[in-house]
TrEMBL record:
It comes from Paramecium octaurelia. The keyword ATP-binding applies. The keyword Heme does not apply. Residues 491-512 are annotated as: Disordered. This is PIPK domain-containing protein. InterPro entries: PInositol-4-P-4/5-kinase_core (IPR002498), PInositol-4/5-P-5/4-kinase (IPR023610). Residues 494-505 have a biased composition (Basic and acidic residues). The chain crosses the membrane at residues 6-29, 41-62, 82-99, 119-140, 152-173, 194-211. GO terms for cellular component: plasma membrane.
Amino acid sequence: MGIVIVAYIDIGCTAISMLACSLICILGIVSPIYRKYPSKIIVWISSLFIILGIFIFVDQALVIIENNHSNAFLELHKLTKFLLGVIIIIISNQFILFLNEVKICIYNPFQATSSSVFLFLLLLQCLLIIVLIIIPLLFWTNIKTYSVLASYINFFSFLICTLFYIAIWIILNKNKTLQSKRLYEFKCDFVKQQGYWLFTMLTINFAFSYYNLDSNEDKDSYILKVALSLEGLFFSIFHLIQPYSYQKLYQVFFRSCQQQSYIEDIESIEYGLNNDIQNKMMPIYEKLLKTQINELVKGLVKAVYATLEKQFDHHMKEFEMKRTYTFKFHLSELDESRISYNENDVIKDSIILVNTYHPNSFTTLLKQNNLTKNILEYTLELQYNQKAFEKAKESMGRSGAFFFYSQNNKLIIKTVEKSEIKDFLDGRINSYFNHVSGNKKSLIAKIYGIFKIKLMAYKTQYIVLMENSFEQMKMLDHEFVVYDLKGSTANRTSKSEDSVQKDNNFKQSPYNPINLPKEVSDQIKLQFKDDCCFLRDIGYMDYSLLLGICTQNAQQSDNDNYRFVVNEAKNMVYSFSIIDYLQRFNQSKKSEQCFKRSVRFKKKQDLSCRSPEPYCTRFLNFIDSFII
């Protein structure tokens, strides 16, 4: 077969692949599900295949031109060959990173829902691209040598992917008996699906690199570029044939021809409505994450409640810093309606290992706030929280923390970073106990427990048990508006549809300023000053005022309760509390401040990230400006 004929075939295949990858990118723009993590990575790889297609298109066009005009574009052809190698290496490297995210999805679902992980992957990709551009600029005369080096990198990537994929299967099967059968089947299906297309494309890259290493490469190797150009097509077909994808594309391009019921079904999936259609058309990774997050949250709540029971029953030393408990249970105890076993199945006990910190002090704090053992049972028992488990979700902020709100709105369970827990326990927790115990009117959202929990086949989770500052607001009949306020203007604007609004939204709202009787407003400001100065003194910053506002007739039940304030004259109800206060001004925050000052923002006083002293001052000045 002639080189020119192969080039024309290659151009045609490339055009089809680019069209298919463009459909994936369209899904990423119009579909909320494809804007989630890990779906974003699918769009990112599609974009790389489009870039690869462009370079293949140019490369093969030069082949056709050079057939009639020998050596006319020799340097340009040399450059396009190099750029092809660069993109292939980037794609191969992306497969390794993608496999890592598959591992995260099956091992730590909370992290798999965080977009910050995806941004970190993009940063790694950008660094790789910079390196691949700098090397040829330094060694342009030895471009052939670089091509051989690129092929070796591709070989190495292929080997790592193979080993990593085997490791994922080992992790999955090692804990097979410590998870429900349904969840295990979901994970197996998910890993198998990724493996089908992953190894198809890696094999093509492997072959392409093998021919690059052949110094006597003949012209028939151009046929491999046809296969290479089809990589994007294989990748796109794999994702487009899933029911959700083609129904969504059908809706986008042929909405007027489509039955209204199909449109409603797709919208039900996108906006999280719970119905039977969701199970039929939702992508498998969405099903996987939803199933295992539900199971993991139930296990964490069960562990916290079982630990609190022990704390109430056991006599503990006054200054005991840590106590470890081990609990065993069968998976059927988590959800008997969902998990079933055959008589021949081997049921292995699942083990929950819990470290609880300062148990005596936290138990005392619970009792001081009238949280008895009976109330905790009603608040955290699984049978009373079935609807709450379905609502457990990731924070809308950058932290990626995961929240569970008890059905009766009394308590919150939140995942936190290990570093935050370590900082809090190292010399600050005693000051915290003294402050919240000695200040009954404190607006700081109270922490009632700190736990390190290892549950079944999941990554160790660090958990805090906190009071729900909106418990009284939730008891009102009317809906209320929620604001997360830091006193900053940089990046402090939320979209209108977001459930939690920010500083710039509040400044433009009809609720600004907040009018209260002078005596009440003065007392609230004094309490804010007391709490913020305490946080400043122990080195904390980046905390927020969680403000709830409701328009409703209500009576102030407790005049000393500054969490829940009623202005009867204006028929307004307000809730004030300080949250997210476990962040120290460490090296990470110092680097963030330096970057934002030099690159993103001109006015340093507008930055959210500040050291404790100026942060406290700005926060209090902001509160003084809108509470009058």
